[in-house]
Design a protein that fits this description.
mainly alpha
Amino acid sequence: WLAAKTPLKFGAVGPGTATYDITKIIVATVGLPIQLVSGYKGTAEIRLAFNSGEVHGVTNAWESFKASWPKELAAGAVVIVLQAIPRRHPELPNVPLVIDFAKTDEARKLIQTGVHDYAAVARPYVLPPGTPKERVQILRKSLMDTMKDPEFAGEAKKARLDIQPLSGEELAAIVARTFKLDPELVERLKEIVK
């Protein structure tokens, strides 16, 4: 794919969405030949565009593919070729990671910040400033206990949900790291996703 002369068309919603921003970062850091076609109202429209041959792919979560594209996956019409996560998903052990194709330290930092960290904090549970620490700890523990509950896990599996939560401490560390980013890296990210 890296050596392809003709770019593949990838469907995207628009700036500020994973389908757009992550794809732009992958193009900028790895050099994959992708023509981004944005303006779709959602991934359901992108799936229709894919099925009609209007686009060749999309950057989306594995969980979304499993839930929304099961027929295409079963038929082999959808093939996952790259993972934009820090570690290979257990269900996709032979699919390479985007970061493995990064050739520079800057590219790895951009992928870490703009792809991995972005995805990790995409759907957080947060509390307002000033919430008593004891309450925060109780809620963190309760949430993580729920995620480990066998009945909850069984229901999630039936619904095809892939539950891999970060702890509150992990989420806080990512947010803190984001606020300490090198200003030049921030400007480069802004330039990429504009």
